[in-house]
Write a structure and sequence with these properties.
The complex is a heterodimer of chains A (about 270) and B (about 450). Chain A has about 270 residues and is α/β, with parallel strands linked by helices. In chain A, about 35% of the residues lie in helices and about 25% in strands. The radius of gyration of chain A is 19 Å and the shape is globular. The mean pLDDT of chain A is about 90. Helix content of chain B is about 60%, strand content about 5%. Chain B is built from 18 helices and 8 strands. In chain B, the strands form 3 sheets. In chain B, strands 3-4-5-6 form a 4-stranded mixed β-sheet. Chain B has a two-stranded antiparallel ribbon with strand order 1-2. In chain B, helix 13 links the parallel strand 4 and strand 5. In chain B, helix 2 packs parallel to helix 7, helix 4 packs parallel to helix 8 and helix 4 runs antiparallel to helix 9. The chains are: A alpha/beta (about 270), B alpha/beta (about 450). At the A-B interface, helix 3 and helix 4 of A face helix 1 and helix 6 of B.
Chain lengths: ~270, ~450
C-alpha cells in the first residue's frame, strides 16, 4: 500500500533512547510494583518477561503515562514524564494495548479504530488511510464493519492490536498481545511485531517465552520490580543451555528464564 | 474541513452506537405524558408554559440518573487506561458526548416547549410578559441535572450510581416540598408555588432558580472535565455560592408567581348591555356577546333584572358572582373559539338558575342537590320558554323533578310565575337551599 509520509515521520530523532528509566519506582496499590528500575530501550522489539507480580503491567502502564512514577526518572521519546507536565506530545507517539482491553461493544471495528485514531490525534486527513492500514495489518479487513460484540476473543485481541498500531506510533506498548490468539493468528501477530520493530520501539509484556524468541530483538526479565536480565534473546538461550538445571523442565528458553531469575535472586540475596 | 468531518463522524458514531438517543426518546415520552392534558386549552400562555415547566419536577431526577449512566461509560467499558494514554484533552474527548447528552435531554425538553408555541400563538389573546422564562429555566435545569449526573458518573462509575442518584433526587424533591412554606421549595426545578392562568412570574424566583441551576450545570461540567482531584474538589463551589444567592433572591413567602392584573382585567364588547370577559379570554367575546345579550333580554322580564354579563375569574371571591346586577359566566374553552357549555347552549348556560351561579360544589351526592339543580334548570327553561330535552348528563330522577317544577310553575298565574322566578333568583344569590320550594310552593 502506498501512503504519503509526513515531515514529522522523516524528521531525525533528538533522543538516543525512546525509553530511558533510572531508579524508577511506581506504585500499584500500596506497594511498589516497579522498585528502582534502570532501563534503556532503543528501536526494536523488547520482550518483557517475568513471573506474576514482577511489575510488567505496572511498568507498561508507567510507559503509557497512565501510572505516574512515585520517584526516579523516566524519559519517553526524549521527554521527561516523571514530573507530570504536558504529556500531549509524548502521547501522540504512543500506541498502547492494555492487559485488559476495554472497548465499546456496539462500535464496529472501523469505528473503534477510527475513534482511537481521533483520540490519538492522528492528523484528520490521514485518519481514513491509517485506520484501513491498521485493520489490514491485523487481518480484520473482512470484519471491518462488524460490531465488536460479535467478534471472538482472538479477533478482539487483534482489534486491540489494530487500535494500538493506528497512526504508526513510535513507542508501542503491548501487554499480553497474543492472549487468546490461535496458533496461526499468533504467528501472524508475531510477524507483525517483527515488522513493526524495524522503525518502532515495541515493548511486549508476555508470559509466553516462545513469543519473545520468535519476535523480539532483546529481552527484559523483571523480578520484584527490578531488571533481572536485559540482553539479546541469545542470552536467554545461552543461560538455558549452559549449566542447565535438571530440575527445571521445558525447553531451552524456559530453562534459561529460570536460570537467569535464580541468578538474579542469588545476587540480590547476597547483597 | 477534514477535521470537522472526523469530529462529525465521532459525533455521529456516538449518536448511533450508544443508547443516548433511545434513552432521550424515552425521557421525552415521559415528558409527553406529563404534558398531555386534554382539558387544557392552548390559548392560555401561562397555563401552557407553566405546565411545561412543572414537568421538569419529574424530569430532572431522570436526567440526573441518565447523565450518571452515560458518565460512567468509559469506566464501564474498561476504557479508562486506554484513553488515559491518548493525547486528546479530556474536554475535547468528552465534548462530543456531553453535547450529545445535553442536546438530547435539554434540547429535547426545549423542543417540546417550542412545539407547544404555535398553538398558543394562534389562540391566545394575551401574551404575559416574561412568558419564555419558565422554558428557559427548565432547559437549564434539565441540562444542569444531566451534566451533574454525568460528572458524578465519572467520579463514581459504579453501576449503582445512576439509580441511587435518581432516588436521591426524588427524595430531595419530596423533602424540600415538605419543608414549605418558605423559600426553600423554590430551589426545586419545576416548582414555582401555587400557579394558575393569571400568574405573572416573580423576577426574584426566576433569577434565583436560573442562577442555581446554571451553577449546578457548571459544577457538573467541572466534575466531568477536571483532570485533577484538586479541581474536582472545587467543583461544588459554584453550586454552594449559587445556593446562598438563590435563597436570598427568591421570594421569602415561597410564591414564585404573582397575580397578573393585566391578565384578569375586564374587556367589554362594544354597545349595551355590557358583556365583559377577562383579557385572557378576549377571544371568546365575539361568541359570547350575542347569546349573553339575548339572555339579558329574557331576564329583563324579572323585576330588578341584571344589566350585564361578566366573566367570573374566581367564583369563591369574585363579587360579580353574587351581584344582583350581573349575570356571572364561567368560561372554559375547548377550542380556539369554542366556549364549553356542557352539551347545552351559551344562552341556556347563562339562564340556568335565572342567571346565577350554583353555590357550593356541584356534587351529585350532596343531599338535596337534585332538587336545587332541578329548580335552577326549571327557572332557566321558563325564561327561555323551552321544555326539558333528553340529556345524558342528567339523571331520570332529576329530569322528573325539573318537569314537575316547570309544570307546577306554568300552572300558576303569569304574575306569580314571574314573581317566583325572581324570588328564586334572589334566593340563589343568597345561596339558600330552598330553591325548589320557592318555585313550586302551593
Amino acid at each position: 500500500m502506498i501512503r504519503t509520509v509526513s515531515a514529522g515521520e522523516t524528521a531525525p530523532t533528538t533522543y538516543a533512547w525512546p525509553v530511558q528509566a533510572r531508579g524508577l519506582r511506581v506504585r500499584a496499590g500500596r506497594r511498589f510494583a516497579v522498585d528502582g528500575l534502570d532501563l534503556r530501550l532503543g528501536f526494536g522489539v523488547h520482550g518483557l518477561l517475568g513471573p506474576n507480580g514482577a511489575g510488567k503491567t505496572t511498568l507498561i502502564r508507567a510507559l503509557a503515562t497512565v501510572a505516574r512514577p512515585a520517584s526516579g526518572h523516566l524519559e519517553l521519546l526524549g521527554q521527561a514524564v516523571d514530573s507530570g507536565g504536558d504529556l500531549r506530545e509524548v502521547r501522540r507517539g504512543l500506541g498502547y494495548l492494555p492487559q485488559e482491553f476495554g472497548h465499546y461493544r456496539w462500535y464496529t471495528v472501523r469505528e473503534f479504530v477510527e475513534y482511537v485514531a481521533w483520540l490519538r490525534e492522528v492528523p484528520a486527513r490521514d485518519v481514513p488511510d491509517a485506520v484501513q492500514r491498521a485493520i489490514d495489518r491485523v487481518d480484520l479487513t473482512s470484519r471491518a464493519g462488524s460490531t465488536l460484540r460479535s467478534l471472538s476473543g482472538g479477533m478482539l485481541r487483534r482489534v486491540g492490536l489494530a487500535q494500538a498500531v493506528v497512526g504508526d506510533p513510535t513507542l508501542l506498548l503491548l501487554d499480553e498481545p497474543t492472549v487468546g490468539l490461535d496458533p496461526e493468528q499468533r504467528a501472524r501477530a508475531l510477524e507483525l511485531l517483527r515488522d513493526l520493530g524495524r522503525d518502532t520501539c515495541v515493548v511486549v509484556a508476555t508470559h509466553v517465552v516462545d513469543d519473545v524468541a520468535a519476535a523480539c530483538t532483546d529481552v527484559v526479565l523483571l523480578d520484584a520490580g527490578r531488571v533481572a536480565f536485559h540482553g539479546p534473546v541469545a542470552g536467554l538461550t545461552a543461560a538455558g543451555t549452559g549449566g542447565a538445571d535438571p530440575e527445571v523442565g521445558g525447553g531451552v528458553l524456559e530453562r534459561g528464564y529460570a536460570a537467569l531469575l535464580r541468578r538474579h535472586r542469588d545476587r540480590e540475596g547476597s547483597k | 474541513m477534514t477535521r470537522v468531518k472526523v469530529l462529525g463522524r465521532v459525533l455521529l458514531v456516538e449518536l448511533s452506537r450508544t443508547s443516548v438517543v433511545g434513552v432521550a426518546l424515552g425521557f421525552l415520552a415521559v415528558a409527553g405524558v406529563l404534558l398531555t392534558d386534554m382539558d387544557r386549552w392552548s390559548g392560555l400562555w401561562m397555563s401552557v408554559v407553566l405546565a411545561h415547566y412543572a414537568s421538569v419536577g419529574a424530569l430532572w431526577p431522570l436526567a440526573l440518573a441518565c447523565g450518571a449512566w452515560f458518565g460512567r461509560r468509559e469506566a464501564a467499558a474498561r476504557m479508562t487506561d486506554l484513553v488515559a494514554a491518548t493525547p486528546r484533552p479530556k474536554p475535547a474527548r468528552l465534548a462530543a458526548r456531553l453535547v450529545t447528552i445535553v442536546g438530547c435531554f435539554a434540547g429535547g425538553y426545549a423542543a417540546m416547549g417550542v412545539g407547544m408555541l404555535p398553538g398558543v400563538w394562534s389562540n391566545a389573546s394575551y401574551q404575559p410578559p416574561g412568558w419564555y422564562w419558565p422554558g428557559l429555566v427548565g432547559t437549564v435545569a434539565v441540562a444542569g441535572a444531566a451534566l451533574l449526573g454525568f460528572g458524578v458518573g465519572q467520579v463514581a462509575p459504579s453501576r449503582l450510581t445512576a439509580p441511587l442518584l435518581g432516588v436521591v433526587a426524588v427524595a430531595v424533591t419530596v423533602g424540600l416540598r415538605a419543608v414549605g412554606p418558605g423559600p426553600v421549595p423554590l430551589l426545586l426545578p419545576g416548582y414555582l408555588g401555587e400557579t394558575d392562568q393569571y400568574s405573572l412570574l416573580d423576577a426574584g424566583a426566576v433569577a434565583g432558580q436560573l442562577v442555581l441551576f446554571g451553577a449546578v450545570a457548571v459544577t457538573g461540567l467541572v466534575m466531568s472535565l477536571a483532570d485533577t482531584r484538586q479541581v474536582r474538589r472545587l467543583a461544588g463551589v459554584p453550586t454552594a455560592l449559587a445556593l446562598v444567592v438563590a435563597l436570598v433572591v427568591v421570594p421569602s413567602d415561597g410564591q414564585g408567581v404573582r397575580p397578573d392584573p393585566q391578565a384578569s382585567a375586564l374587556v367589554c364588547a362594544d354597545g349595551t348591555p355590557r358583556v365583559c370577559v377577562v383579557r385572557l379570554y378576549q377571544g371568546a367575546l365575539p361568541e359570547l356577546v350575542g347569546p349573553a345579550r339575548e339572555a339579558l333580554r329574557r331576564l329583563g322580564r324579572l323585576p330588578d333584572a341584571p344589566t350585564a354579563v361578566v366573566q367570573v375569574v374566581d367564583e369563591r371571591n369574585d363579587t360579580a358572582a353574587r351581584s344582583a346586577d350581573v349575570v356571572p359566566v364561567e368560561i372554559v374553552m375547548f377550542g380556539p373559539t369554542s366556549i364549553a357549555t356542557g352539551g347545552t347552549t351559551i344562552e341556556a348556560m347563562l339562564l340556568d338558575g335565572a342567571g346565577t351561579t350554583a353555590c357550593g360544589p356541584a356534587a351529585d351526592d350532596l343531599p338535596g342537590w337534585d332538587r336545587l339543580d332541578a329548580a335552577r334548570s326549571a327557572a332557566g327553561l321558563w325564561l327561555r320558554g323551552a321544555d326539558p330535552t333528553p340529556d345524558d348528563n342528567v339523571s331520570p330522577a332529576r329530569r322528573e323533578l325539573t318537569e314537575a317544577a316547570l309544570t307546577t310553575l306554568r300552572g300558576l298565574p303569569e304574575p306569580t310565575q314571574t314573581a317566583r322566578v325572581a324570588a328564586l333568583r334572589q334566593a340563589a344569590l343568597e345561596c339558600r337551599p330552598d330553591l325548589y320550594e320557592i318555585l313550586t310552593a302551593a
